Amino acid sequence: MSCSLLEFCRLQELKTVRDYLFHSHKTEPNEEKNQTDNELSWDTSDWESAWDSGEYNEGKATSATVVEEDTRGQSGPWLQDCAVSLSPCSDLLVVAREQKAVFLSAKWHTDDSGREEMTLDVSWTGILSTEEGECVNSCICIPLASQKRSSTGRPDWTCVVVGFSSGYVRFYTESGVLLLAQLLHEDPVLRLKCRTYEIPRHPGVTEQHEELSILYPAALVTIDGFSLFQSLRACRNQVARAAAAGSDTIQPPPLAYKKWGLQDMDTIVDHSSVGKSVMTLCVFDQMKNASILGGFNASVKGSPPAMSQYITVGGGPYTGFYYAVEGSSQPLLSHVALAVASKLTSALFSVASGWLGWNKNKNEEEVAQKQKPKVEPATPLGIRFGLPDSRRHGESICLSPCNTLAGVTDDFGRVTLLDLARGIAIRMWKGYRDAQLAWLQVPEERSNWQSSVSAFHPSRHALFLVIYAPRRGILEVWAMQQGPRVGAFTVGKHCRLLYAGYRLMGVNSVTSQGWQLHTQQVCLLDPITGALRTVNIPFHLALSDKKSERAKDMHLLKRLTAMLKSREVSPDMFENEGKSVLLDIRHPSIKKQALESLLSHKNAPISCLISITSTLYDDLKQEDSNEVDTTLLQLCCSQLKLLQVYTDIQQLHSGADIESCSENDSLKDIEVELCRVAPTLQRYAQLTSRPSVSFAQDSHDSPLPAHIFLAQMEWEEHGALKVTRRSETEWNQLGNFLFWGCLCGKSPIQKVCDTLQQAGICPQQLLCLLLSLWLQREKAVLQKTDEAVKNLHTLLITLSNMKGAVEESWDPQSISPWWQQVRSMCIQSHNAAAALLASFVAHRAAKVSITSRADSQLQSEWEAVSLELEQWVVCVRQLEDVLVLQTLLLVAPPQGAAGTPVAQCSIKSLLEGGTGGIADSVSKWVFRHNLDPERLKAVLQKSEDKEADGKLKDEELQGGEEEKEKSQNNAYRTAELLVALCQRFPHSLSPDLLFAHCCWEYVVQWNKGPEVDIYTTRTTTAKNEGRYLCWAVEHLKLVSSPHIQLGICTMMWSTFIVKRFSAAAFLMEKVGKAPKDRLCRRDVGMGDKAMTSFLGCCVQLLQILMEVTEVLHKNRCPLSFISYYADSAVEEVPAPELSVEEVWCGAEGPASIAELALEQRGVHYPLVQHHCLLGSLLHAAMTFNLKVKPLSLFDNKGKNAFFRDLTSIQLMPSGDIDPGLVSLRQELLVTQRLTGGHHCVWSWAPCCSSTLISCDDTSSVSFTTRDWTFRLRR
């Protein structure tokens, strides 16, 4: 593992940024192509001189519309002329030049391959300068930490700080909004730098406070980080409130800062604020400093005073060291005015003056420009010492994260490393003109156990210096302090090395606990490609030099990894390079890693792997037994054995020595079983053989790569070979490699099994691999059923005869674990045909095996034989049932039917589905096929009524059209299949049970979409709207058991109907007429036409409920509002007894719909009659567009009884009716002209019929109350 450059972000709009900042390219419109030469002329003196000097070598312009306005804009390194700053969180990039600036914010995009990548897109552009003639000199992006407790280290927002040539320092948001501006000094701002809080890694290390430092030609201003953080937050909040309130004025809070006048240095171009002294001075150093500062008579204090260190670079001297001594206690703000005259405390925490608002009017701006704010004088600060070099001039300084080292560049092309504690230069590099520096601090990698053991011990950190030489186009990484160059990368000559040197502002020792700061230390920006790359350096490079064995081993491993990644590698090169690297590596751990890399290569030839592993094994055997690594030796030995097994199996599959399967009685019995289920298997194969799309690499015929075989094999301590199940795909690939040739008859079964047994693979795992392959490749098995079944029988017999397969001393009273494993896999499989064939074979193989074992034992053990075979009989019967059911479910529905996924069933899923699981699966199939209730009834009666068979066939074949003959034949075959299924499940698919489940399935689907038609999946016209509910009622009518009908009605009403029914009643009562479509959709959830159909279905449902309730009572009488029906009565019709087939009696799961229906309580007959009357009124009003308030036709008792539980006893209306209510009813029933040409005729007649309401068609509706009846007709 070595250094690497990793791209983590990309700039998409670099050309837009350059054009905006430089105006280097301007495209003229097409209609102005014929301009004169004078209009297209420009000054080329500078350009021609640059061409002659050889600095630029540009091609001839190919377009006359390109105009070069700026020499610097057309040159390559345009980014070097800009002030560039990248946020440490890499979410904001600022590029500024002269008066303009561009802000780029991070966004996430998904590329064509579906991989997410981060890009920096332009989020704001504008002009930053407000004073005449001022330009941007420096800028930095400071992310401010969030104050929320839920924050985990991400910034709340980012502040952009910009220094101008006029001396102003302005603070902006990410969107370019000016927060505040301050004139701290009247000279141009040279450099802005920031220092944030870092968690001390060692005890006793002084905590560094946050700080923003601003360098001027002869002054240095430092702003306390805490004060700046609070001021920026306050300004941002004020700006937000002002924008919300429409105001344009803000009042910035005061800002505390210090201002030092740097003396005794000719020129200053850059600086670094080191902070407080990191190391405690010894007594000698303390006396030396006192003598230098105070002379011979200076006094030495017991403890050195606190002081801040500042390093400057420039000229005269080349590097300067400044120390600002601080008092033992910080002065308060109230003492500042009294301490201004003192040189030691001058300008300490001075209140910033001269705030500039970003929203003043024109007159105020002119006044502000004429009257500059007052600038506080600087406190003189003399230089302590420096590095004098009259000819050398420093250009930049970069402080290390630990604040002990600094890198300095100069005009001689040198990079100097300074020891800040001792004030000396300790190292120098030459040949780096215009170099850019950065630091990288890398923590030591720790494993989990090392982290737990060393929880209270800080981890080690390695320090590296990154140097970018633009003249040479190279990026180098050097280990500190005297380490070698550990990495070098060839990059472009116009890149920009971005190093912030700080993290989030606003963090302290309390808020940083538990945070994980996601920041990039060093980034390289390439303006040609727009790529942002970070440097990745492993920790171990700091511990090694050029002669380190570990570094050499890592280099060899890197070379081997690069070779493996290459696409074009010949087998000879692969083998030779692998042997060379493995023999040259010295460390066993790295050698093991290299061997594992070779063995896991997906394109490695098996012969090369065997040769490489053998060479390494022989080399290890020749070493001293005390020095050789036993783990590596065992790995080589085990991998050689596995490679040999892989080679043997491969040779057996490719050989021509094929065994012939002998015929025996068991195979004849299997053939009889196959003939019995052949028609169903043929139909199942036709339904499952539909074409599908698959990838070539997923083909079953592709050979198994050696690395997948090795990855799933693991040697145990006692020498056995264990197969590990990593994924379902790889598991099936392994089974296909081992046994598919045997199942196809292309490989010798006995030899393959002997090879696997000698390898030490457990027979149970081989059996699992074989059955998984058999069940997974069902389509291929059904193509050659007879041959595959014979080979499977031979394989099962051979595997069961292996040692450890069937235990010699298994309990005769229990089930054999070996054959139970086969049954378990067949029970859980969704491939019904393959599972049934496997059960046929396993049943006969088990019978042969058990019979042969029983012949040699006592007769008393025949009970175990019968118990085992009985389990197989039950399993085979269940799988036959599942095959018929799955075949029916696979039948495709007609075009335009409701699309629901095909249910995959197995014995396990049906048993877990409860007693109603089978009926539920068939009811979903009925719904998918839009099977008419009457047609379903005819199919169910087919086995009982022979005449129905002919009738059904005539209905299917009617019409006589030739183009429909094929579809009609398929429909008839499907009906035959449904009949066969009902015959196999006489109890689970009894007519009442199936009709009940179909009714429930349709009402559930109706509840999901009340307006969805049964023939399409889109909203339909009035003719078919609500057909799901209508067919649910039709299925309910076909249930013969009144107990089940009563329960289904009650559950339908309480679960799905009553809520929408009450909403429709209240809506009609509110509007006083039939509501419009919009109101129906808003309150009831369906359109007006669908609501009309819904109310009609409600009336039919309540009629069924009343009829069933009447049948269940012993004494029948004319329907009237008498209290008899409210009392419990003895039921005349006994409740049906629900049962299941004997082989399916072990079902455990939810109760069926019929069982739930039988558990429902009886209803209150007058309450049902009361609701039926209301439903008839609502249906009539919607059908004939009547103006009526239905609830107003009932008294208070009647209103209170509505929408209650039908099983509860409610206080019903009495015979004494209020005259006002009678008049309202008479007004409704009086003959009147209705809208649309309809008439309402009412007649007074006694109630003599048990049927309350009759709905012949949409032309008439009639209903009866206690003493009046009326009919609505067209």
Quick description:
This is Rab3 GTPase-activating protein non-catalytic subunit isoform X12. The protein has 1274 residues and is of the alpha+beta class.
How does this model look, in words?
The chain is an alpha+beta fold and 1274 residues long. Helix 21 (832-855) packs antiparallel against helix 22. It has an 8-stranded mixed β-sheet, covered by helices on one side. The protein contains 36 helices and 36 strands. Helices cover 40% and strands 18% of the residues. The longest helix has 30 residues, at 1042-1071.
The whole-angstrom Rg is: 45 Å
Number of H- or I-type helical stretches: 36
**Main beta sheet, described?**
8 strands, mixed
Low-confidence segments, ≥5 residues, pLDDT <50? 24-75, 328-370, 447-456, 860-864, 946-960, 1014-1023, 1114-1131, 1231-1274
Assign a percent range to the helix content: 25-40%
Please give the order of strands in the largest beta sheet. 2-3-4-5-1-30-29-28
Give the beta-strand count. 36
Q: Report the sheet-strand fraction.
A: 15-25%
Shape: flat
Q: Residue-averaged pLDDT, rounded?
A: 78
Subcellular location: Cytoplasm
Domain Rab3GAP regulatory subunit C-terminal: 765-1230
Pfam family, one: RAB3GAP2_N
Domain Rab3-GAP regulatory subunit N-terminal: 78-498
Topology:
Layout: E1 4-11, H1 14-22, H2 45-53, H3 71-74, E2 83-86, E3 92-97, E4 100-110, E5 116-127, E6 136-145, E7 155-164, E8 168-172, E9 178-183, E10 191-195, E11 211-215, E12 219-224, H4 225-245, E13 256-262, E14 267-276, H5 283-294, E15 307-315, E16 319-325, E17 350-351, H6 362-370, E18 379-381, E19 383-387, E20 394-399, E21 405-410, E22 414-419, E23 424-430, E24 436-443, H7 448-453, E25 461-469, E26 474-479, E27 485-490, E28 496-499, E29 522-525, E30 531-536, H8 549-565, H9 571-584, H10 588-599, H11 606-622, H12 630-654, H13 665-688, H14 706-711, E31 713-715, E32 721-723, H15 728-743, H16 749-759, H17 763-776, H18 778-783, H19 785-800, H20 817-828, H21 832-855, H22 862-890, H23 907-912, H24 917-928, H25 933-940, H26 946-957, H27 965-984, H28 991-1008, H29 1027-1037, H30 1042-1071, H31 1077-1083, H32 1088-1111, H33 1153-1158, H34 1165-1184, H35 1196-1201, H36 1219-1229, E33 1239-1243, E34 1253-1257, E35 1260-1264, E36 1269-1273
Helix pairs in contact: 8-9, 8-10, 9-10, 9-11, 11-12, 12-16, 13-21, 13-22, 15-17, 17-20, 19-21, 20-21, 21-22, 22-27, 24-28, 26-27, 28-29, 28-30, 29-32, 30-32, 32-34
